[in-house]
Amino acid sequence: MPELSGPEPGAAVSNRLEGKIAVITGASRGIGAAVAVKFAAEGAHPILIARTVGGLEEIDDQIRATGHPGATLVPLDLLKTADIDGLAAPLYQKYGRIDLLVANAAMLGRITPLAHYPPDEWERVFALNVHANWRLIRALDPLLRAAPAGRAMFVTSGITRHDAAYWGAYAASKAALEAMVRIYAAETRQTNLRVNLINPGPTRTKMRAAAFPGEDPMTLPPPEAVAEAFLALALDRTGMHGQWVAADEWLKDRPAAH
Q: Which residues does the chain have with pLDDT short of 50?
């Protein structure tokens, strides 16, 4: 895998993202929430997107508890993909750019044979995992290009590297996401923007618990540990572009953050 240059888990805060504007989807829990707290601790201003106002407020409280002035909260159902277009204008008016995009929101769907998959649920999984991310690219690309060192991270899954029987819409949608992001990376190769895919690997999240109900979650790294790999990709010195990064490989042999 490509070598990630970044901080060790548990490293002291050094404002490595000072002044950065960071848009994070799926930010009310799990990996998205952990990334939001991590980026805020490093000096970024997080713009948190999720459906639930209460969940966003809880993460904002965590951020403020560290002495940070707080995040911008955007309650938005990304399944209403046309509404994503409305993000660009207010962000441009207030900030003029976006430095970081973490496209994390996703839906597991059902673990069931393809022939049994409900069509409406199949379409919902693709709407969130693929179409919403295309809408984010479409809306935010000019703002990312306007940043001196824009960084866009799209969360994928190792399931795309296997013949994943019964994973249906989730595996297919993540494969489509990967193809789309590789195209976006090719189209931005001559810019200051760096675009990458990141696979968190097995992580202690509600989605993982739903997919593997018999697994002991305490055997998995927490989202806070995985957030370290996102921080490494967010740094200005990170030159990787168009890569598929396995966060769990990068975290191997490093102590988990708690």
A: 1-12, 253, 255-258
C-alpha 53 chain-centroid distance:
19
The whole-model pTM stands at 0.90
Can you say whether the dihedral through the CA atoms of 216, 217, 219, 220 is positive or negative? positive
Identify whether 170 is a catalytic site residue.
yes
Domains and CATH numbers, the chain: 21-251 (3.40.50.720)
d(CA 227, CA 31): 7
Q: Among the options 92, 95, 170, 184, which is catalytic?
A: 170
